[in-house]
Amino acid sequence: MIMGKPTVISHRVTNIYRREAEGWKMVHRHTDLNPAEQEVSKQVHS
């Protein structure tokens, strides 16, 4: 919720996998807001 209102927020996600003997293993994950929502977040939290 933002300012008391239900809100849908989109994220960008990057996952990096490495193949190992047992199968694929996730070795890194990064998530951030898309650029338009980053600006809204800055305004709400200022």
Please outline the helices and strands:
Elements: E1 11-20, E2 23-33, H1 35-44
Antiparallel strand pairs: 1-2
Keywords:
single chain, alpha+beta, two-stranded antiparallel ribbon, 2 strands, elongated
Description:
The protein has 46 residues and is of the alpha+beta class. It has one domain (11-44). It is 22% helix and 46% strand. It has 1 helix and 2 strands. The protein has one helix at 35-44, and strands at residues 11-20, 23-33. It has a two-stranded antiparallel ribbon. 0% of the residues are buried.
Please provide a brief summary of the model.
22% of the residues lie in helices and 46% in strands. The chain has 46 residues and is α+β, with helices and mostly antiparallel strands.
Helical coverage, percent range: 10-25%
Hey, roughly how much beta strand do the residues contain? over 45%
Which radius of gyration do the C-alpha atoms yield?
Answer: 16 Å
Cα distance spanning the termini: 16 Å
Tally the structural domains. Answer: 1
Low-confidence stretches: none
Overall residue-averaged pLDDT value: 86
Dominant shape: elongated
Kindly report the spatial arrangement of strands forming the biggest sheet.
1-2
What would you call the quaternary organization?
single chain
Please summarize the sheet with the most strands: 2 strands, antiparallel
SS class? alpha+beta
Tell how many strands the DSSP assignment holds: 2
Order of helices and strands: EEH
Q: What is the number of helical segments per DSSP (H or I, 4+ residues)?
A: 1
